[in-house]
Amino acid sequence: MKYDITEIKVKAGQTVKLTLHHTGKLPVTGMGHNFVLLKPDVDMDEFAQAAIKAKDSDYIPADYADDIIAHTKLIGGGETTEIEFTAPDKGTYDYLCTFPGHHAMMHGKFIVE
Fold it and tell me: Which tens digit of pLDDT belongs to each residue from 73-86?
């Protein structure tokens, strides 16, 4: 239960195409994964706690929508999803999986140079 990449480096303004592949076998309801890239200064733990309450929206809390740069859909074992977005300004950003309890191990740094 971890991302195989915990640091992603890109250039500011670059088009980023990210592919998330869930290598497990459990269904999305039991062991879903996603990728959520947060804006700077967002408290990852606070965001993850709010996400736990957002089951109906795939653990993407509507009240925190303005804190998200980009996110994938929630996927289950054997599934793949892709997103494409423009890299934000230079800086270091947090990303995480918002499925309940996952952010403690499933997180990383998105570094924009």
Answer: 999 999 999 999 99
- Walk across the sheet containing 91-96 and list its strands: 7-10, 107-112, 91-96, 36-38, 68-71
Look at residue 1 and tell me whether its pLDDT is greater than 90: no
The number of C-alpha atoms within 13 Å of 9 and in the hemisphere containing its C-beta is 1
Indicate whether 78 belongs to any domain. yes
Residue 2 lies in a domain: no
Task: Please indicate, yes or no, if residue 30 is contained in any of the structural domains.
Answer: yes
Tell me whether residue 65 is in a domain: yes
- Concatenating the DSSP letter of every residue in 70-96 gives EEPPPB-TT-EEEEEEE--SSEEEEEE
Q: CATH number of the domain that 106 lies in?
A: 2.60.40.420
Question: Max CA-CA distance within the chain?
Answer: 37
Domain count, the chain: 1
Q: Any alpha helices (H) in the chain, and if so which ranges? A: 28-31, 44-52
Which region holds residue 59: left if phi is over 0, alpha if psi is between -120 and 50, else beta?
left
